[in-house]
Amino acid sequence: MKILVTGTAGFIGFHFVNKLLNEGYEIVGLDCINDYYDVNIKYDRLTIHGIEKNKIEYNKIVQSTVHTTYSFIQLKLEDRENIAGLFDAEKFDVVVNFAAQAGVRYSITNPHAYIDSNIVGFANLLESCRHHQIKHLVYASSSSIYGLNEETPFATSQNTDHPISLYAASKKSNELMAHVYSQLFALPTTGLRFFTVYGPWSRPDMALYLFTKAIIEGKPIQVFNNGEMKRDFTYVDDIVEGVYRVMKNVPTSNPDWDAKHPDPASSKAPYKIFNIGNNNPIKLMTFIEAIENEVGKKAIKEMKPLQKGDLLETSANIDDLADAINYKPSTKIEIGVKNFVTWYRNYYKV
């Protein structure tokens, strides 16, 4: 089976490639390598997989020097012509899409980046999947789409019509667009709502990275909503295992789907939505304490009000995921934070 994985210079895509390589799949990785954050960490992730920086050229396939079954292409999803050309040339069986403009707060000041990558780019991906009879499209959605919903834990059966950031709206759009293609063209699609993914090689704009860096350097951290928030922190290895099992679990029509009482997470089309979270929300202050304990220093805390676009709490109901793939994330926050801090100290030699 030949798999296209997008976003492979990114955090989750990098780890997912590790998994697929260990399982022996043939993979083409894709990433635009934009400068939303330090590109050096992106190139370093690629180097781990044998993709040399000096050989990367836009719209050119680069063969890994380490893995015979892995190659990479720098390409934007919004580049419709070249995305179509890639599908024509490579004949993929399955597509796993992690590529997206990330970040809730960035979407407030840079909205067009989200429209271009997350909506135009995703439409191009759907079109190519449709025309090349892709057996399964798996794509990253987000817990952010639950928006103003205050009923926790969040369940895929709940309404998600009130997002509070453009990032969340773009992910909701992906789910709606995927359903159209599942319905019209029988394209099997599965959307995965990730809940606060963390771990080694994470993005520099994420809380764990920012807090660890500041605490080690003796600088203050900004604690929003005075720390009165909860997040369903989910370790990246747990996410990867979930995505891998979902990839092999191709959705089919739900025979019990009722148009008069529609289940938002399934359809009469080959379409499915799952939450992937740790199912154990942690207080932000508890999360900070875990970092302090691992670093061996107390944080200097600057208490701030709630930021626009932030949710007060995220908590995942994953019952349907567990039933479908016989798997639940289980990594404890202390273990995950320890692994990240160890990676951070080794990577930055601090």
Q: What class, by secondary structure content? A: alpha/beta
| Residues in helices, as a percent range | 25-40%
The end-to-end span amounts to 42 Å
In what range is the share of β-strand residues?
Answer: 15-25%
Average pLDDT metric: 95
Output the helix-strand order: EHEHEEHEHHEHEEHEEEHEEHEHH
Give the strand tally: 14
CA-based shape: globular
Q: What does the radius of gyration come to?
A: 20 Å
The largest beta-sheet arranges its strands as: 3-4-2-1-5-6-7-12
Low-confidence stretches: none
Question: What can be said about the biggest beta sheet?
Answer: 8 strands, mixed
Tally of DSSP helical segments:
11
Short description:
The chain has 350 residues and is of the alpha/beta class. Helix content is 39%, strand content 17%.
How does this structure look, described?
It is a single chain. By secondary structure, this protein is of the alpha/beta class. The protein is 39% helix and 17% strand. The strands form four sheets. The chain has an eight-stranded mixed sheet with strand order 3-4-2-1-5-6-7-12, sandwiched between helices. Strand 1, helix 1 and strand 2 (26-31) form a beta-alpha-beta unit. The longest helix has 21 residues, at 111-131. It is globular and about 55 Å long. The relative contact order is 0.13.
What is the element layout, followed by pairings?
Blueprint (H helix, E strand, L loop, with lengths): L1 E5 L4 H13 L2 E6 L7 H10 L12 E3 L6 E5 L5 H11 L3 E4 L8 H4 L1 H21 L4 E7 L23 H20 L3 E6 L2 E2 L8 H11 L2 E5 L5 E2 L2 E2 H12 L23 E6 L5 E2 H12 L4 E5 L14 H7 L7 H16 L2
Parallel strand pairs: 1-2, 1-5, 2-4, 5-6, 6-7, 7-12, 8-11, 9-14
Antiparallel strand pairs: 3-4, 10-13
Helix pairs in contact: 1-8, 3-5, 5-6, 7-9, 7-11, 9-11
